[in-house]
Amino acid sequence: MNMLIEVVALFLGFVSWIMIFISLQDQHWRESTQDGSVILTSAIYENLWMSCASDSTGAYNCREFPSLFALPGYVQASRALMIASMVFGTFGLAATLAGMKCSKIGGENYTLKGKVAAIGGVLFLLQGLCTMIAVSWYAANITQQFFDPLFQGIKYEIGEGLYIGWGSAILAICGGSFLLCTCRMTDNKIITYPYQPPSGGHMLSTVATSEPVPSNYERNAYV
Length: 223
Hints:
Blueprint: H1 2-25, E1 30-32, E2 42-46, E3 50-55, E4 60-64, H2 73-99, H3 110-146, E5 156-158, H4 160-187
Antiparallel strand pairs: 1-2, 1-5, 2-3, 3-4
């Protein structure tokens, strides 16, 4: 049963790791809103790296953000968290592969493999937390600007890239939790050994005596 849970945890971690790249490549982290617009001639959508604009004919043009320091603080923080999430996910996959019981890596030292698998679970949890914080922080700024009546700039709505990020975070947290649960279940098992009575350094004689040994010797027994 533990081996099956480890396989499921590895699958969830791998899928969440792939979804991070999909989310980062998706250009629709936020999209200009159509609320209150009678005639829509263009749409603007952005992610952490670039801004794109499309017109009614379907033509679009994208440009990368020219300066990192000119970006808002939450965008810079989201970039750093997503990069950290990719790093945690990469090392989490490597540790999980090495710590699985069905893996030949590391031999048959299951105690050590269990500790390595637990490290993989912690790394998956860190991956999920970093992704969740980055995506939620970005979405919070979108909703704050959208419902702010004093905001004079372009208002945006949540794009599909954020939903992919949320899905990646949930899968990574589930995979890390499964790995930690399997390691805890393995530690709680009581290992029993066959009983072997101690010898105490005494050896039993196998030679049978035909006559009983007298406890007291008489004086006339000696010549």
